[in-house]
Amino acid sequence: MASSPAAGTTTWPALATTAVLMLRGCLFVFLTALPPAAIMTPAAGHVVELDDMLMLDRFVRWQAAHNRTYGDAEERLRRFQVYRANIEYIEATNRRGGLTYELGENQFADLTSEEFLSMYASSYDAGDRADDEAALITTDVAGDGAWSDGDLEALPPPSWDWRAKGAVTPPKNQGPTCSSCWAFVTVATIEGLTFIKTGKLISLSEQQLVDCDMYDGGCNTGSYSRGFRWVLENGGLTTEAEYPYTAARGPCNRAKSAHHAAKITGQGRIPPQNELVMQKAVAGQPVGVAIEVGSGMQFYKTGVYSGPCGTNLAHAVTVVGYGVDPASGAKYWIVKNSWGQAWGERGFIRMRRDVGGPGLCGIALDVAYPY
To answer: What is the CATH number of the domain that holds 266?
Structure first.
């Protein structure tokens, strides 16, 4: 005869029942805060299923982890529905298999693709590059201005990572309110070059560019090539500590802007659609590139991203190295982004390298660097 549970103990079925009741209670509170019309939407349904309760619990925990609040009950319901759709997309993509990368839930999980692209991936505007085309030169790996044809005869090292050499500051966060990726790339490339030349890694000011660079739009798009032009004419950049980032354009602080912690003497550009030359350049210093933000990149977690994506250049990032993934054999670029360190591989993404033509997501179309 089976023994009965000892007095004072709780059986597993009882615990499971308690958990379900708690979830139902959370869902009841969530739904009763909504107007009846919102509850009766097809997306919400007339019957509350266990999957709904589990997803709601996950959403509530996600809100707490990312300190996310909403203005009213209708917005909360809408964000829950977006969150659910994104989680289903992430899990379906990972289940599909055959990819060299993995997606994951992150701080962008309550944004639609359109919202995300508008907030974080539409900051780059090359405009008319005629003023910069005089710099369409091959450059040298030392970063001092001019590659010779002989430099291209030797193959670059098989792998390179400026992070391991101490030339890369931790990824920063441009935020959702300021379309300033171009400023982060201008700064990141100058930070790297300054370390290579001086041995000192100094975090420089993006806000100085946002406020003071008259060639670009501050929080309303810009380009790293024009950013280099402004830094050259200004005589240099000050530090992030002296001129901190606010994610909003303000009046230029000319006193702070006159303090120069790093200087450049010009800029160079890599001929487009040549990843071998680009590889040689990256072995010399970090370089700025523009990309189209591809499908799923919003939720990139780890691995070698391989698309799909096109060549509608709308976001600027910094290439700080390259290598080969030992698991898949895929060649990749190491790319520093400006979406914070909670995204991707601590703020970096590895993107497929040597795909030919414009490169993955157009990464080989607009490559520039300071010297």
So the answer is: 3.90.70.10
What integer is the mean pLDDT of 72-87? 96
The letter for the amino acid at 357 is G
Peptide bond into 326 cis (omega under 30): no
* Residue bearing tokens 């790996």: 141
Whether 271 is in a domain gets the answer: yes
Strand pairing class (101-103; 300-305): antiparallel
Residue spans of alpha helices (H) in 109-177 = 113-120
How many domains in the chain?
Answer: 1
CA 369 vs CA 185, 232, 278, 314, 357: distances in Å: 10, 12, 11, 18, 20
Alpha helices in the chain (DSSP H): 12-32, 36-39, 50-65, 73-96, 113-120, 181-198, 206-212, 224-234, 254-257, 275-282
Residues tagged active-site: 181, 315, 337
Residue 364 included in any domain: yes
Please give the Cα distance from 288 to 319 (Å, whole number).
6
Q: Report yes or no on 55 lying in a domain.
A: no
DSSP 22-88: HHHHHHHHHHHTS-HHHHTSTTT-SS--HHHHHHHHHHHHHHHHTT---SSHHHHHHHHHHHHHHHH
Report if residue 119 sits inside a domain: yes
**Bridging pattern class, strands 367-370 and 267-270:** antiparallel
What pLDDT digit, counting tens, does each position of 211-246 carry?
Answer: 999 999 999 999 999 999 999 999 999 999 999 999
**What pLDDT, on the 0 to 100 scale, is given for residue 136?**
38
- Rounded Cα distance, 111 and 108, in Å: 6
Q: Mean pLDDT lowest for which of 1-5, 113-117, 174-178, 180-184?
A: 1-5
CB 228 within 8 A of CB 186: yes
- Structure letter (DSSP) for residue 100: S
The pTM for the full model equals 0.84
With b meaning 16 or more CB within 10 Å and e meaning fewer, what string describes 13-23? eeeeeeeeeeb
In terms of C-beta density within 10 A (0-12 exposed, 13-18 middle, 19 or more buried), how is residue 248 classed?
Answer: middle
The closest alpha carbon to 155, from 269, 270, 283, 273, belongs to: 283
